[in-house]
Protein 1
Amino acid sequence: MTHRFQKLSGVLIIVVLLFTCSRSDAQLNAEIQKHAAKNQLLSDYYKARNFNPVWGPGHLSELARFLRSLETHGLSPNLFQLNVWEPYWLNPNPDPKVQASVEVSTTHLALFAIQALAYGFVDPTEVHPKWKAIKRAVTASQFLDAAFQQPVGQFAAYLLDKVPPQDSRYSDMVKTLARYREIQSYGGWKPLPDPGRPIGPGIPYKDLDLLKARLQAERDLPTAPQARNRKKIFEQLTSDALKSFQFRHGIDPDGYIGPNTLKEINIPTHERINTLIINLDRIRWLPRAYEQAEHVEVNIAESALRVYNRRQRVTTMEVIVGVKGKHQTPVFHGNIQFLTFRPYWNVPTTIARKELVPEALKGDPVSYMQENNYEIVPYFEVAPEKALPVTVENLNKVSAGGLFMRQGTGPKNALGLVKFIFPNDNSVYLHDTPNRNLFKMADRDLSHGCVRVSRPDELAHIILQRNPENWNLNAVRAAMEDAGNPNNKVHLSEPLPVYLMYWTSFIMGDGRVRFDEDIYGHDVVMKQRFGLR
């Protein structure tokens, strides 16, 4: 009898335990549903899992490992408040309400961190109003699900391998960030005293050793042993290394220490680190598969254009961008849809009103308009023979927006002999220019916002390879010179993506890192978002 009672008691205990666990699980699931309902993404995520918890001790430990590892990508764990959440993970609260809150918040945190590593901590649409959100093929939720399918011990490693941009320039930037942090860990570099005058080859320079150490820190000067220079004469080897430094910092490479060069040399290591951090985020904004297809990139801060095709850089050329503080080129992306050879320049009303009409009215309006090939038209698409007389009255109507001004086609046209159109509400496009000498300048923020291209014939040739017609370089140049076929529009068989980016730090084709001036002040906003000094 006693034996049978003991067996029955054991069964009752098991039943009670199962009932209690079932009731506890149901209560937890109900609380999870309640907490997840506050966010549609989280509600959908947990609904697909019947509102069951997904985080156990092993995965929580791996999540903490993942968040700590984000430091190498320029994403501090502080950005995700790891120090706040980890105590909840290490010491779980038995209250189902607290458990559910921690559970859902942890998923929210994990998705946010994955999103930051994959597509950017800063939302580009919040700092660049013209940027349109890019649809992503793989969501943060899908990355998280795939990580949960791995062995628990591989959870963090999987995310760190699959989530970051699969772009060699991104991984090179991560390595560069690590190298600059190592320099900072040793105290950074010492500032170079102002020599008081330009210093170059053949000139005695008492701080020559300090300059060499500074150039070696960023690998512009080899660290191999060099002959002793007792007289401290600035030699050609150091001058060549200084030219490398100047080129990487957007300075005319003359090999002399001048004010601009000294300023860049003396920017502290921690500032370079902060610049690398925010530019890593800017790379994350791009489509993950963008490097697979042909596309055009314009780096506004560098005043440079690059064409890529299948992970390979096809060409690089100088460009001119909008004037800082006045006519800034916006950060956005679009698709080049057609080219126009020998285009008209449809003068924006603001430029006509503020610049051209006042200039015409200074002297003889007719002579001014003829010399510059300008005409007054009732609308831009009108035939040349429909142009209106050049009178003071009509010029005033142009200023008021009742009539319009355009410039006829030809080599003196402000747009040159070809323009590349990607329709947008900014009226920004790529184009040729008659002012070729401006490309020799180191600082090239000189336009009204459009991007002037230094080698437009080469760019047109590359782009038109997508079309079935035989657009060789000679055919492109012939179209540019064909005065008998003005405003000749050629549509692309497939639109070509173009990205107008703003990178103040960038990995060049030879693997070296480049730093450019923050001409538009965009870095200030980014650093504030990251909580950087």
Note: DSSP finds 19 helices and 14 strands in the chain.
Protein 2
Amino acid sequence: MNNTDYFNYIKISKKYKLILVLTILAFLCRVFSIHLIFDITLSLSSVFLFIILRVSGLKWAVLAALIVNSLVFVTKSQSIELVLGFTEICFVGLIYEKKHKYMAFYDALYWVIIGGAIICSMLYTTQGKVGIDAYSLIFIYLINGIFNITLAEVATTYAPFKNLYGFEVVIQKPPTIVVFLIHLCIAGILGPFMLYMVFNSWNFEKEVKNKVFENSKQAANYINDQFSHWSSADRRALKLKSLLQIGYVNDIIKAGTIASTMNIQLLDSKNEVLASNFSKDKNNTFDLLSNWKKQRISDNFYIWLPDKNYYLDISSKWDRAFYLYESSMFDFKILVKVPIIDYRDELFTNYLLQARIIMIFSILIAFLILIIKNFIVRSLSLLLNTSTNLPEKLKRQQGIFWPESSIFEVSILTNNFKAMSEELGNMIMEYKSMYNSLENKTNQLIDSEKRLHEMAYYDALTGLPNRHYFTNNLKFLFEEMAKDNKTTVDVMLIDLDRFKQVNDTHGHLAGDLLLKIVSERLIDILNYYPKDNHFVSRMGGDEFVVVINDLNESETKLLAQSIITELKKPIKLEARGVFIGASIGISVYPYNGDNMVEIMKNADKAMYAAKESGGNQYRFYSSINNVGISQKMCLEQDIYKAFERKD
């Protein structure tokens, strides 16, 4: 395994470990949820499921939700809440996969539409109506869902997931100030409100229990006081179910009933109802169904409610549940039953009142965020837009309008940017000045280098390449030609005839002008040939050389004759026509030599032979008498040396 595979393995391993830890935390939060009242709970389970959604995507979030809900169903059988939680993850996840924003809005949309429809249909199925409890449940779950999803957004937005676990979350860029304010406001409003709702529910439940206990105890004591004046004969008559005595008891019970919904029963030793303020309870045996259970609150005070496993929703069993107070009186038992449904409606009414308060606060906070956005964020946005690409704007000398702000910190920040931009502008101007100066010096150096190159490689009079250029270029050409044995190079050494007489007669200025005209005529002749296979140079004095390749012998002869013909034409000097000629010696590489020295020596010999033949002619080195030419050249050199020594 190479390093890349190893790091990928570590990265994937960390990802799976994170998903496992978050799934376990979601399960624990579902099992140990916060109890409000009447089996209504608040849970932070979806916080971790939404974190999985934002970190790893919809597939892993749905899988984690399925595992958590399956385990909770086995342990606690919270079927409806599990259905709501699972569909919430699926609904929000499907939209978030495409949008990647506004999770809280999508969650609120879910609870208003889908979650609300599920709750309302559930209650309508079990109760035959949709009442205040449905709206309260929707409100509670809506608040819980928005709070949980905000916590998930905060965790994935501000926690360093990349540094801790080595992979990116879905968030592509840091949050804006508005997003930060929204997170802060939601957490600041819903967090304390949920705590208030929890403690308020607990206090309400405690107050209800105390109130019911005191009322039930007061009603039972009143009946006991009334029975304490009865004789033993009256009590025996009651045991024998005397209608007269039962009528008296019914009157006592009705008089002792504090609330209209309070159900007071008098039971004999066989748990048969002797008297009750509800006519339907009379002559019945008190025997709660086997699927009901009794929860003790305090001495003689209980909650009787159906087993929740027989009800799929969180509301139905509390519609039939009641508080029960027991009191003994001689051989009889007094039962005081108070239905819980009345207090549930009171609590749910309180929840809806809180919902209105939350809505008002939310509207005020939204209005406050808009104000902050207009006064603070707007100023910061203008400052951001102005300072974006600031160096480039200063380089273009673009006018910059710095926004004004009434907020102290933003104003100071703007002034700092303004001062910095001015300083940066001055630095850019100095940089431009230095750059222009450096550019001028660089151009001067380039021009100087160019002039030096021209002086070194080009003839100052004619502008043609000089002997140095010719030597280097011919060496390079021979090296390249050596790679292709089929290529030939013709070297034509041109010496002007009668140039000395013109120079002596008309002066050096006229001679220089003549040399310029000769060079121009040579260039015009060679323009008929491809530029990349020839060049012409001035060797010095009245000597020129033409190098051309890829010509056969007949083409070379034609070129040589063209040069002679062109140079024979009269040249106008000082309003007079001057006639000169040219002698051309031609040596061919590689037939007349395999190096530059030998080729030039042989071209010189051929040129000398042409001049000896009367001038205005060309000679190939291969067609001359080499021995005779060499002897004559040597004799001329000896005569010239003797003339110099004046022997």
Note: Residues 213-345 form a domain with the Beta-Lactamase fold (CATH 3.30.450).
